[in-house]
Amino acid sequence: MKTIIFYLDFISPYAWLAFHSLPKALQGISHRVVHKPVLFGAMLKHHGQLGPAEIPAKRDWTYRQVLWLAHQQGCELKLPAAHPFNPLGLLRLSLACDAGGEPNRYICEQVFRHVWCGGEDAADADRLAVLTDRLQPGRDPAGAAVKQDLQANTQQAIERGLFGVPSFMVDDQVFWGQDALPMLRAYLLGDPWFAGPDWHAVSMTSVGVRRQTS
Question: What DSSP element (H or E) covers 170?
Answer without folding.
Answer: strand 167-170
